[in-house]
Design brief:
The complex is a heterodimer of chains A (222) and B (300). Chain A is α+β, with helices and mostly antiparallel strands. Chain A is built from three helices and 13 strands; from the N terminus they run ααββββββββββαβββ. Classes of the chains: A alpha+beta (222), B mainly beta (300).
Chain lengths: 222, 300
């Protein structure tokens, strides 16, 4: 079944991994945990708390694909909780390396929009949400459904050029990876909207891009 | 206020079996229809005045259609013979096989059409659409039976345009294919001779005859080269003989099934393109007639 939480989490992780906002601006640290495996296991608890995004999982020298090969349980408390990486197949022996970002200060990329009282020093930021979802029956007898969604992603900064640079990078990353997501087969660019000022003094500007998620199928059973 | 006649269950189950009982899997069925034409005539008689004397029912024509989004593709066996299992191919045959079509009417009854032949098979896709197929059929008899039917369905994905390609001919660059459609049409004729029959058999066709196939390929192409013009002209200048080319359509589903359709011996019949001051992309529309078709695929 389609999971909005999983879709949102995958997009959030993708945006964080894409360095659209630099690691230093996000105030996160990138670390790598190395696990030596001598007994079959598929779960790996990350050593640092405040895990934001898992960048890479390497098992015995081979890169794993998110979704097919591994999933991540992010901490419910994103400042102090730890994260767990679950491999689809157990590893008997060898080495598992997991690269991820962590921080105890928060992040600048979230699946919601910034609060108004956030200080200018806490920009640039990126916020996004699912703004529409369209589901139709895929066959008579109502056994399967097909869903398309639109995700609206908004880039905020105190400089117009910075906003446009973020939007350009985002477009480029989504184009390059349009068919490589796990929770949806395809993402395409739909609309890019005009710049707008977010506050009366015009200190923060933003631009929004809508991206369409295609062909999410669900089996409803007989 | 809800109608008392509103349906409270989802029926719309469709089942198609060969006469030997093998079920066909039509993937995600989008639409199915059945129809019966009794060919009723009124007759008159001298001295009868303005009113017709009565009505007579003629030979029944029983037909229907199915539209679906394919998942396996081997249901295209409706036009011919299938060979192979996980790696399969379908090629046309002279005499079409007969099937039984069943469509659920309510929770306890279904309509069955017996001795069905599928006369027209079409497949098409556009750049933002899922590959779809359709067919029409004629049968010899229709009856309402007690019972339920169940669509031979699948939980796997249909073929989507993400993993599709269309290749056409060999003369230069063609451009970007916006859409395509392939039709394989045997044009069925329900026939009945003058025979010694009784009861309803008097009105039922005894044979479903199939004509020689008409194979057509149509496409709109966002042109990036001279290819479509040359295909239609037979070269840079108009030639006496037009090239015989091949249209090849390839699709894959996310779950890994593949499907290929080849129209061979294809000659461009009509070509048109239109340009305007708006700076629109040049779109050439072509259609052609082929002499052969082969469908093939693999299951993941």
């Amino acid at each position: 079944m389609i999971s909005i939480k999983s879709i949102v989490e995958e997009i959030q992780t993708f945006l964080r991994n894409s360095n659209i906002i630099s690691v230093s601006d996000r105030e996160v640290t990138t670390g790598t945990d190395t696990f030596i495996v001598d007994d079959s296991t598929s779960e790996f608890s990350l050593k640092n708390t405040g895990v934001k995004n898992v960048r890479l999982v390497i098992v015995n020298g081979s890169s794993m694909n998110f979704g097919d090969d591994y999933s991540v349980t992010y901490p419910s408390d994103t400042r102090t909780g730890s994260g767990i990486v679950h491999l689809t197949d157990e590893v008997d022996t060898g080495t598992v390396e997991i690269k991820y970002d962590y921080s105890h200060k928060g992040d600048r990329i979230y699946a919601d929009y910034p609060r108004e009282e956030i200080a200018i020093s806490k920009y640039p930021r990126i916020g996004f949400d699912i703004i529409s979802s369209n589901t139709g029956n895929l066959n008579i007898g109502a056994k399967n459904q097909m869903t398309n969604m639109v995700v609206s992603i908004k880039a905020f900064a105190d400089k117009k050029d910075e906003v446009d640079n973020m939007m350009d990078t985002m477009r480029k990353k989504f184009i390059t990876n349009s068919k490589k997501f796990y929770n949806f087969p395809l993402i395409t660019i739909q609309n890019i909207y005009p710049l707008r000022y977010e506050d009366p003094k015009g200190k923060i500007v933003s631009r929004t891009g809508d991206f369409k998620l295609w062909f999410m199928e669900e089996n409803l059973g007989d | 206020m809800a109608s008392k006649n509103r349906r409270t269950t989802i029926h719309s189950e469709i089942e198609v079996n060969s006469n030997s009982g093998t079920a066909l899997n039509f993937g995600h069925i989008q639409r199915a229809s059945t129809s019966i034409a009794n060919n009723v005539i009124t007759f008159h008689a001298l001295g009868n005045g303005a009113q017709p004397k009565g009505t007579l029912a003629g030979m029944a024509e029983i037909s229907g259609t199915i539209e679906w989004l394919p998942v396996r593709g081997d249901e295209t066996v409706i036009i011919g013979s299938k060979s192979g299992t996980n790696t399969w191919s379908v090629t046309p045959k002279d005499t079409l096989e007969e099937y039984i079509f069943k469509g659920q009417i309510d929770s306890t009854h279904y309509a069955a059409i017996n001795d069905v032949k599928f006369g027209k098979f079409s497949m098409s896709a556009a750049k933002d659409e899922i590959l779809s197929m359709s067919t029409d059929f004629k049968g010899k008899a229709m009856e309402i039976k007690a019972g339920t039917v169940s669509t031979e369905t699948t939980t796997k994905e249909p073929f989507i345009f993400l993993d599709g390609s269309v290749k056409l001919g060999s003369i230069g660059t063609i451009g970007s294919v916006s859409n395509f459609a392939i039709d394989y049409d045997r044009e069925l004729v329900a026939a009945k001779g003058i025979e010694d029959t009784t009861g309803s058999a008097k009105r039922q066709p005894t044979d479903i005859l199939e004509k020689t196939a008409e194979i057509t390929f149509r496409s709109d192409i966002e042109v990036t080269g001279t290819g479509p013009w040359k295909e239609a002209l037979g070269g840079a200048q108009m030639s006496e003989n037009l090239p015989s080319i091949t249209a090849e359509v390839n699709f894959a589903s996310k779950s890994g099934n593949t499907l290929k359709a080849k129209v061979t011996g294809l000659t461009i019949d009509n070509f048109s393109e239109d340009e305007n001051v708006g700076g629109d992309i040049i779109v050439a529309s072509i259609d052609g007639k082929g002499t052969g078709i082969k469908l093939s695929g693999t299951y993941a």
